[in-house]
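Q: My labmate handed me this sequence with no annotations at all. I'd like to see what the chain might look like in three dimensions before we decide whether it's worth expressing. Could you predict it?
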Amino acid sequence: MKTLRNLLMFAVMLFAISCDKEETFDVTPQTLAQTVWGAEIEYFDENGNATGNNSCIVEFLSETEGKYSEPDMNTVRRFTYEVDRAIIVIDSGIYTLLNGTWHIVEKSEQQILLQGYYPNKVLIILDRVL
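A: Here is what I predict for the chain of 130 residues:
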């Protein structure tokens, strides 16, 4: 009986150790540097209804600088960025698609959801390409 109890305890411990731990992904300058993301930008009115969208490719070149390209306009714009816990601030010096203070709402290695208000809600869905 004692052997059966020890075997059962060993099996439970082995199961507990082998369970996958949920991996967390932190959005930091280090995790963003040298990555490429497809961005879908969605705009909403004051009632929360979608009013339009845009898309671009975002490249975080280093821990402080990046660039994005708008396929429709055939333009490439450079920007600087900072990450402070749950906020990312993007600045290109002029008003552009990505300029602003964005709250990191959801995050994983493959997707990041950013939200801001300019003055109404704007969402940026970043899907990792590279």
